[in-house]
Amino acid sequence: MTEPGLVPLVDGVQAWVQPDGSWWINNAGVILGGDGPVLVDTCATEVRTRRFLAAVDSVAGGAPVRVAVNTHLHGDHTYGNCLLPESAVIIGHQATRDGLLADFLLANTPPIWSPSPEWGALSIRPPAVVVHDRITVYAGTRPVELRHPGHPAHTQGDVVAWLPDDGVLFTGDLIFHDVTPLVFMGSVDGALRSLEWLASFGAAHVVPGHGALVPGADFEAVLNVHGRYYRFILETASAGLADEISPLEAARRVDHGEFAAWPDDERLVLNLHRAYAELGDSEMDLLAAFTDAVSYHGGPLRCAV
Ligand SMILES: [Zn+2]
Questions:
Q1: Residues 281 and 210 in one domain
Q2: 242 alpha carbon – ligand 1 mean position (Å)
Q3: Which end of the chain has fewer beta carbons closer than 10 Å to its terminal beta carbon, N or C?
Q4: Could you tell me the distance, in angstroms and rounded to a whole number, from the CA of residue 276 to the centre of ligand 1?
């Protein structure tokens, strides 16, 4: 599959999968239950969100979107919120609402990506209902549990959507499938700890935030490779701190091993900035981290949004 499209998982539940899952190209979902669709996330740009909403319309028989869940604050999952009907209720973690209200990227995109994302006519619309720990939304009679891992991981406010009757887990960006994971706005240690929690759902179908769908039988292997990557970040950061070299230098000198083949390899620099801050108990400078990632990459980052 090379074009974005809906992929049926179980009756009434479909994943919106957007290859190739690189910067700003996310996955989302639609859950039907007889009283208007429940969405999991929107998309980054007006064009991509309108394409998703048209596909939702075709499977929902034109019923207006009733609820949309934001798995976290990043624009690839939330910038399209403003295209939803005004009557739709958007739900996310408190940190997702707070972070979106402080967003500066949409209105003032720094020259980090090339070409710069073409957002279209979008404005920030944050969740109006917030989750702290968990909440259950019903799509008709189908429960959709929104659960927070209890600590920062990919971001401060990650929420998964778990359909216990269907065995479907929408992980948001707690999972990047064969795409370099990004944890610089959350916690490397927290992301590592979230893996056991993700495994505990016993999901039969996993929709990652980026990359191809994961059948339940393959999930353990996918969780294991995330664990190896997070430990690799922490070990590289410890060694770099001990040798008093910068995150950029640490990323340059280390062999990226099995992770080198993943798209967006430069994210190691961003992740190391977070690990340095965590291990050294210091603040992370977001723009300095991006500047280093662009240096590592040898120019603005790849963007096909
Ligand atoms: Zn994402």
A1: no
A2: 32
A3: N
A4: 22
